[in-house]
TrEMBL record:
CDD domains: STKc_PknB_like (cd14014). One of its GO terms (molecular function) is ATP binding. Residues 320-334 have a biased composition (Basic and acidic residues). This is Serine/threonine-protein kinase PknK. Residues 11-270 form the Protein kinase domain. It holds the Pfam family Pkinase. The lineage of its organism: Bacteria, Pseudomonadati, Myxococcota, Polyangia, Polyangiales. Residues 307-334 are annotated as: Disordered. It comes from Polyangium fumosum.
């Protein structure tokens, strides 16, 4: 209807407000009283739509309540369009409010009372809404305490119950009561009570009570599943309110409040504090222990509707009972299912839902598949879908995710054209069904078509423990490598990789025993990664050192220090022993006091300094140990190791290359994802284990089962195991136990089959133990089970489980006074862990964290993970900060950032947030991720006290990014703020770092006008305190090299400053600072012509460019130039290619330009002038090119153009580059090459006088620099070994003569 139309001589259409399935709703004006109204228009309606419209008019016309939208009138227009006029409401639907988040408890109670009062008014007149949901609750003024009910179109009026359409469902699936889902005839006010319960649940929980993506899944959950506990989801909910909502959601209508009035009365009691309804004890009184509920395999089977299912009644007829309307086929299928002990419900849409549970996932899948095939024979071509998932059989969700999987599989296979439809399967179920089942896969997914004949076989008893078989070749390889390592001697590493269950640990165990037998003087240091502690700084090395030092897990700090000092003193002189012991103490939980130890105190105040000192101490100690006897370091499960330990081992393999040091590491194949450059460039032999061969597998089976086992049984086990050692062990045990059921073929299924044979308390104990990880403690498991379980009972059960080869006791414990136990295989632990319900998993981690914290757990990452998974974010954050600090101190910036960001996402307190932001900001700046660094830096400066060290770090990150983005005024403002600080002594090093970095970056950007005042400020700040603070002194010296070399053209002074910075960094023990200083030492060695020395100085260590990305491109550029000047063009080209590729990958245009002109320079040196010109031109065209790089690239281009005979272009480019150099006064940055190039271009263009003038200036410049260089060797190399300098002097001799 058009705007402005007036009908019924009263209502004027203003605009369309919305449309629905059968109607349009317009906002109109009631011209009689000048008030807005809502007009609902229905035209071209079907008979069903007309009947529904009549019902809505009748219902609203008979109701008058402030909580129900008010009826104003209705009628029919001349064109047959029918209309209904209601009051106009301003606000929004409850559904829109909930889309933004859940309601408060107070708002929910207010809404519940008002909606219940409205329902009570309707129920008193025998009207049942039948479609109560958030979309049909309108909040006036968007206020939860002002709701109004809408849409009575499918309401039940009195005793008349007419349906709405031939295929429609009366109600909305997620809010329909079970009796509505079943299609029962008697649906009364209690259906509205159920729907209101669903609405209140979503208001409180922020999620539906019965979620699902598919209709069948939702309907089945309404019938079979209970919603989660509201108190678990939201602890602030009054327990009486939760009890009321859960009673409203009862499956049986008799267990619900009788109608809306009864709900109002209970809410009034709750608000008055007089409520007495308590279903179970309040949370505060619940015992803090794991429940007996566990997640077990559940199978769900859905049978889709057919044309014979639930035929709809004729329009206007009374709603027939479910029993009369259900087809004979439906009832037959239901009876067949229930005869097999499988619950089955006929759903309102004509489909059927069944579910069943069993002990093992594989056995359950096979059983459910057979039931499905038997029912399909009766199903008359109806679609079937079968899925296995995990449900809590004794808890609220017996179906778990199985019903959702089945519904998804059914939807994927809709439209199958087979006369006899296959049974749709989800991927998990398809994997659980073995070869006897005919499973096919096509574009729609997996489907089951039948079953083949069963295999025959018997099983025998388990024999004796089995030997290591099938690994003779690998053992010989390892033995040969170890022998060579000792005889040469030469450091050697071997990496054994294999998937879980293939026998890595068994191979390592056999090799170590053999190696120590053949080399009895060798010392074995053994350590292993742990999934729970993956990434914990220095954990791998710490374990190995403790073994070497004889430190027991229960030793206290004093005992640990004594053992450490005793061992180290036997290897070193007193002064060295003190240093080595004190820094090794940092990673073996034996910290020394630092009151009288300046290096130790300085390292504890500086992350990178501590990393470098630990590294030096470890290498010195390991080297001394190797001098005494060969060292065999065994590292298991390196994929769960930590980067600092991996780096230490890498450094040892490099630094101790001539020592008898052997590393045996085992890992899963994904270790390269965690450590992509693992020991790259070292002597490393990789061994990849494959599945055991048939002969080896047979030997293992025979050794366990004995010769009495039939060949048929042996062959069957070998065939099913497919060479997996763990599969073999499980199948052997199953055969010995005499279980004739088909065995699982996946690891999860096998684990479930084994655990299902245990009694309930044994499984509960394993579930509790699994919370801790692969290793746990008897006392910790008992803490999760509750104090009602005695210590002796837990011990007895653990012993019994060890006898069943599920667990093994360890000789030593990491926690003093606590017995340590390990799962025999990680997959057994994973199987037990998957059986925990979500509620128990959360509680378990919370209890585990508390217990570990009180029993001396020192690994912050372990504690943080437990508290985080236990939904205790405030406690997790504190430990994550410690974990991030550890990683940062160890130089693993990526892990440090990951941990810090993980903590930031949990909402830390202000003080902790400052520490976390400081870590992220500093780490990202060094990695050259400047935008991210600046973002965190801005948050840091807003939160940290001005002038504090964190504030300075944040400001430096913002300055660096602003300068990179050419926001000059902003960067200068930040710099002024930093420079104006009067720093406290503990902040001086940080301020020195900030100002030094500022000078470096400003010179690169060509802003020499700002640099001198900063350096004067640095002189004033650091000069008086230089002797007392080596880090401040180091950064002070580091602010000068570019200024001296590029602007003052004094590379000797620049080299002296760089060396002084390097010495200060070394004095402080700072590896990061040392790397920075070496870049400038190498730069000046190249500028002075010491090309071989410069190339060596600038050669990167492992991960150098990743850890120090902010200076990585300069290091690479200077090395390219040193290699080129030394004639090593192939190496130079490789280095330039790596520089360019890294910059391209990181999207850094400044570095990309640097890489481009470096490639151009190498091409020019090789005589490839066209290639040189192309690269130089490309560098200059990049938007992010820095001023000095622009000038240097122009010089390369000019030289290449001249060589190609394009003299005019060459001269123009040389003049332009000369102008660029003059603008930034940076002739020290390859300005000598530009001058000689300009002179040659001028000469080629015929401007010989000007050419000679330029050459004269160039020669005088060289002599001036040479005079400032007191070292005769450097003075000579500067004049003779820098190609452009030698060429300048050669041309000057020819053009100017010796006398000029």
């Amino acid at each position: 209807m058009r705007e402005g139309t007036v009908f019924a001589e009263r209502y004027e259409i203003l605009h369309l407000a919305g449309t629905g399935g059968m109607a349009e709703v317009h906002r109109a004006l009631d011209r009689q009283n000048a008030t807005p109204v809502a007009v609902k228009l229905v035209s071209d309606a079907s008979p069903v739509d007309d009947a529904r419209f009549d019902r809505e008019i009748e219902a609203l016309g008979s109701l008058d309540h402030p909580g129900i939208v008010r009826y104003l009138g209705h009628g029919t227009l001349a064109n047959g369009t029918r209309y209904l006029v209601m009051e106009w409401l301003e606000g929004e639907e409850l559904a829109r409010t909930l889309a933004r988040g859940r309601l408060s408890v107070e708002d929910t109670i207010a809404l519940a009372r008002k909606v219940a009062e409205a329902l009570a008014s309707a129920h008193e007149k025998l009207i049942v809404h039948r479609d109560l949901k958030p979309e049909n609750v309108f909040l006036v003024g968007a206020r939860p305490d002002q709701p109004k009910l809408l849409d009575f179109g499918i309401a039940k009026l009195g005793r008349h119950t007419r349906i709405t359409g031939t295929d429609s469902i009366v109600g909305t699936p997620g809010f329909m009561a079970p009796e509505q889902v079943r299609g029962e005839a008697e649906v009364d006010a209690r259906a509205d009570v159920f729907a209101l319960g669903c609405v209140l649940f979503e208001c409180l929980a922020g999620a539906p009570a019965f979620p699902g993506d598919h209709l069948h899944a939702i309907l089945a959950k309404v019938l079979f599943a209970e919603p989660p506990s509201l108190v678990e989801l939201r602890p602030d909910i009054p327990y009486e309110l939760e009890a009321l909502v859960m009673r409203m959601l009862a499956k049986d209508p008799a267990d619900r409040p009788r109608d809306g009035r009864a709900v109002v009365e209970e809410l009034q009691m709750l608000e008055s504090g007089a409520a007495t309804v308590r279903a179970v004890a309040p949370p505060s009184l619940r015992p803090p222990s794991l429940t007996t509920t566990e997640r077990r395999p559940v199978a769900a089977l859905l049978i889709g509707r057919s044309k014979h299912s639930l035929p709809p009644p004729a329009l206007g007829q009374s709603f027939e009972s479910r029993e009369r309307r259900a087809s004979e086929l439906d009832r037959s299928l239901q009876a067949e299912a229930e005869a097999r002990g499988v619950p089955c419900e006929i759903l309102r849409d004509g489909s059927l839902a069944l579910w069943t549970a069993g002990a093992g996932a594989k056995d359950l899948a096979a059983r459910a598949a057979r039931i499905a095939m038997e029912l399909r024979a009766l199903g008359g071509g109806r679609p079937f879908a079968l899925a296995v998932g995990w449900g809590s059989l004794a808890g609220p969700s017996p179906l778990g995710d199985a019903i959702d999987r089945a519904a998804h599989a059914l939807s994927e296979h809709r439209g199958a054209s087979d006369v006899e439809c296959p049974i749709a399967l989800d991927e998990l179920t398809a994997g659980l069904l073995d070869a006897r089942f005919e499973v096919q896969k096509d574009g729609a997914g997996f489907s089951l078509h039948g079953e083949r004949a069963a295999l025959l076989g018997t099983r025998t008893l388990l024999g004796n423990p089995t030997p290591c078989v099938g690994r003779d070749r690998e053992l010989r390889t390892l033995a040969g490598l170890f022998e060579d390592c000792i005889e040469e001697p030469a450091a050697q590493a071997a990496l054994v990789t294999a998937a879980a269950g293939l026998g890595k640990s068994r191979l390592a165990q056999e090799f170590v025993q053999t190696a120590l037998r053949d080399a009895p003087l060798a010392n074995a240091w053994i350590s292993g990664g742990d999934a729970r502690r993956a990434g914990s700084a220095f954990r791998l090395v710490s374990q190995a050192l403790c073994m070497a030092l004889g430190i027991a897990a229960g030793d206290g700090p004093n005992v640990r220090r004594d053992k450490l000092v005793t061992r180290v003193s036997a290897r070193f002189a007193a002064s060295e022993a003190r240093r080595v012991a004190r820094f090794l103490g940092e990673i073996v939980d034996a910290p020394f006091p630092d009151e009288d130890d300046l290096p130790l105190r300085a390292a504890r105040a500086d992350v990178q300094l501590m990393v470098d000192q630990i590294r030096a101490a470890f290498l010195d100690f390991l080297g001394a140990e190797c001098d005494a006897a060969p060292v065999l370091l065994v590292l298991e499960d390196v994929q769960w190791g930590d980067l600092p330990s991996v780096r230490l081992v890498d450094a040892a393999l490099r630094t101790l290359s001539d020592k008898p040091f052997f590393v045996l590491a085992t890992a899963r194949p994904d270790v390269r994802e965690r450590f992509p450059r693992l020991w790259e460039g070292r002597r490393l032999q990789e061994i990849s284990l494959t599945e055991l061969g048939k002969r080896a597998s047979e030997k293992l089976v025979r050794g366990a089962l004995g010769e009495a086992a039939s060949q048929e049984v042996v062959d069957r086990i070998v065939q099913r195991a497919q060479g997996n050692a763990f599969y073999l062990e499980e199948l052997i045990r199953a055969a010995a136990e005499g279980r004739d059921a088909e065995l699982p073929e996946t690891v999860v299924a096998m684990v479930q089959s084994r655990l299902a044979s245990l009694d309930d308390e044994d499984r509960r104990l394993l579930r509790a133990a699994s919370v801790f990880g692969d290793v746990f403690w008897a006392g910790g498991a008992r803490a999760l089970l509750g104090e009602g379980v005695s210590k002796n009972v837990v011990r007895e059960r653990l012993v019994a489980l060890e006898e069943r080869e599920l667990l093994s006791f360890r000789g030593e414990s990491r926690l003093p006074g606590e017995e340590e136990v390990a799962f025999r295989h990680a997959l057994v632990r994973e199987g037990a862990y998957t059986m925990l319900t979500e509620e128990d998993r959360e509680l378990g981690h919370r209890l585990a964290a508390t217990w570990l914290e009180s029993h001396g757990e020192t690994d912050p990452l372990v504690l943080a993970t437990h508290f985080e998974r236990g939904q205790k974010p405030s406690r997790a954050v504190r430990h994550l900060l410690r974990a991030a600090e550890q990683a940062h101190r160890a130089g693993d910036d990526e892990d440090a950032v990951r941990r810090a960001e993980r903590a930031l996402a949990l909402g830390p307190d202000p003080e902790t947030e400052i520490g976390l932001l400081g870590i992220v900001s500093e780490a990202r700046m060094w990695q050259n991720h400047l935008e991210e660094a600046a973002t965190h830096g801005a948050r840091l400066t807003r939160r940290a006290p001005p002038g504090s060290a964190p504030w300075v770090r944040g400001a430096l990150a913002q300055f660096t990014y602003a300068l990179r983005m050419k926001h000059v005024e902003e960067s200068i403002g930040i710099l002024d703020a930093i420079a104006s600080i009067e720093p406290a002594p503990e902040v001086l090093g940080t301020v020195s770092l900030a100002l030094a970095m500022a000078t470096v970056l400003l010179l690169t950007e060509g802003r020499i006008d700002i640099v001198e005042p900063i350096q004067r400020r640095l002189d004033a700040l650091v000069g008086p305190a230089a002797d007392r603070d080596p880090m401040a002194r180091a950064f002070w010296h580091l602010s000068y090299p570019r200024w001296e070399a590029w602007i003052k053209e004094n590379p000797w002074e620049s080299l002296s400053r760089s060396r002084a910075a390097l010495q200060a960094f070394n004095e402080a023990g700072s590896r990061r600072g040392g790397v920075l200083a070496r870049v400038f030492v190498g730069m000046n060695e190249w500028m002075l012509g010491a090309n071989t020395r410069a190339a060596e100085t600038l050669c990167p260590e492992a991960r150098h460019d990743e850890d120090f990305a902010i200076v990585a491109s300069l290091r690479a550029l200077f090395r390219v130039l040193a290699l080129s000047d030394g004639g090593r063009l192939d190496e130079a080209r490789d280095e330039a290619t790596r520089l360019f590729a890294a910059a391209k990958m990181n999207g850094n245009e400044a570095d990309e330009a640097r890489g481009r002109w470096a490639l151009g320079e190498v091409a020019r040196r090789a005589g490839q002038h066209q290639e040189a010109a192309r690269h130089a031109q490309a560098a200059m065209e990049l938007g992010g090119v820095l001023p000095l790089d622009h000038a240097a690239a122009g010089a390369v281009l000019a030289s290449a153009l001249r060589a190609m005979g394009r003299v005019d272009e060459a001269l123009a480019e040389a003049r332009a580059s000369h102008t660029r150099y003059e603008a930034v006064r940076g002739f020290g940055y390859r300005g000598g090459f530009l001058l000689v190039t300009l002179a040659q271009c001028l000469d080629a263009a015929g401007a010989r006088g000007e050419a000679r003038a330029v050459l004269r200036v160039a020669r005088e410049r060289l002599y001036r620099i040479a005079e400032r260089t007191p070292n005769p060797e450097y003075r000579r190399s500067f004049l003779e070994d820098v190609p452009e300098n030698a060429r300048t002097l050669e041309l000057a001799q020819a053009w100017l003569g010796p006398g000029e």
